[in-house]
């Protein structure tokens, strides 16, 4: 039980640190990281309360939110934050090319959006791309 409490405190500290940094550096996690955090903080709750559900398409969140009063303290304290971090990652991925378009045009002039090499080029030019583009790339999980 001590592990759950300390890891919940670590997650809370990470969230607090990024919350103070503003939206340009919103905390994001990959879906694999989110699944690991959910398993760590909510695994027992999911097995107890959501057994037998098809857990795709937001069903885990819906199940946990619908059973909020019955969640363990660790799950209750963390599941919404984990969902918000995955949503922030998806939003960052959707915005990275818009935010980095000027940097792409300046530092990657021969690279056409949609050919799959834009992020690679921007990463190679990371010392000269704008702070906004760098932040977008980090939040999107490309670095």
Report what the structure shows.
It is a single chain. The protein is mainly alpha-helical and 143 residues long. It has two domains: 2-89, no CATH class; 100-143, no CATH class. It is built from seven helices and no strands. It has helices at 2-19, 31-49, 59-66, 73-99, 101-107, 118-124, 131-140. α4 (73-99) crosses α7 (131-140). It is elongated, with a radius of gyration of 18 Å. 23% of the residues are buried. Residues 1-25 have low confidence and may be disordered.
Classify the helix fraction into a percent range: 55-70%
Number of domains: 2
Strand content: under 5%
How far is the N terminus from the C terminus? 34 Å
Write a brief structural summary.
This protein has 143 residues and is mostly helical.
Features:
143 residues, mainly alpha, 2 domains, 7 helices, elongated, disordered N terminus
Task: Give me the secondary-structure topology.
Elements: H1 2-19, H2 31-49, H3 59-66, H4 73-99, H5 101-107, H6 118-124, H7 131-140
Helix pairs in contact: 1-4, 2-4, 4-5, 4-7
């Amino acid at each position: 039980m001590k592990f759950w409490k300390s890891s919940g405190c670590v997650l809370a500290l990470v969230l607090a640190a990024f919350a103070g940094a503003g939206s340009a550096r919103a905390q994001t996690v990959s879906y694999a990281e989110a699944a690991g955090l959910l398993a760590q903080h909510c695994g027992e709750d999911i097995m107890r309360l959501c057994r037998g559900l098809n857990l795709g398409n937001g069903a885990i969140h819906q199940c946990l939110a619908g059973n909020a009063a019955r969640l363990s303290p660790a799950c209750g304290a963390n599941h919404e934050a984990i969902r918000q971090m995955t949503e922030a990652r998806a939003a960052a991925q959707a915005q990275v090319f818009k935010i980095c378009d000027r940097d792409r045009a300046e530092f990657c002039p021969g690279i056409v959006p949609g050919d799959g090499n834009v992020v690679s080029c921007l990463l190679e030019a990371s010392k000269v791309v704008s702070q906004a583009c760098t932040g977008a790339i980090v939040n999107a999980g490309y670095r």
